[in-house]
Write a structure and sequence with these properties.
By secondary structure, the chain is an alpha/beta fold. The chain has two domains: about 1-85, no CATH class; about 90-130. Helix content is about 40%, strand content about 15%. It has helices spanning about 30-40, 50-55, 60-65, 90-100, 105-115, 120-130, and strands at about 1-5, 20-25, 45-50, 70-75, 85-90. A five-stranded mixed β-sheet has the order 4-3-2-1-5, sandwiched between helices. Strand 2, helix 1 (about 30-40) and strand 3 form a beta-alpha-beta unit. The longest helix has 12 residues, at about 90-100.
Length: about 130
């Protein structure tokens, strides 16, 4: 699974229209979020750092909810945008999710276990679980 990292609002118009998971590494305005949803109509998750999450307006939260888009907080630790515009979730982590799920663990137990081990936050792990 890949997370598209967007460093500035100037990148939004150039995004691939098929992007599903996007991390905004800048403080987005309402206009930026609207533009992002227009540019990427298939987007399912927008992730922003927790310090920026607190500045998102209620109207944007409601808009995203109506569009069935999850707004989650988190970071892409150790990612270098100058090397790759995508942050890749480790295939080993995805395999571990699949294994733990087949062992009969609940989603909550899996998230608690993997949150301590990995670099992903709870909300992103729940999203990954919903896709598996």
């Amino acid at each position: 699974m890949k997370i598209r990292v967007v460093s500035s609002r100037e990148e939004i118009p150039e995004l691939n229209t098929n992007e599903k998971v996007i991390h905004l590494a800048f403080r987005p305005s309402n206009k930026d979020i609207f533009s992002l949803v227009q540019t990427c109509p298939k987007v399912e998750v927008i992730q922003i750092p927790s310090s920026y999450r607190r500045t998102v307006s209620k109207s944007i939260e409601m808009f995203l909810e109506m569009q069935n888009i999850k707004l989650i907080e988190g970071d892409v630790w150790g990612h270098r945008k100058d090397i790759n515009e995508y942050y890749s979730v480790s295939p080993a982590l995805l395999d571990k999710v699949k294994d733990l799920k087949s062992e009969g663990m609940s989603d909550e137990e899996i998230v608690n276990k993997l949150e301590r081990e990995g670099k992903l936050n709870r909300d992103m792990l729940f999203y990954i679980l919903s896709k598996k």
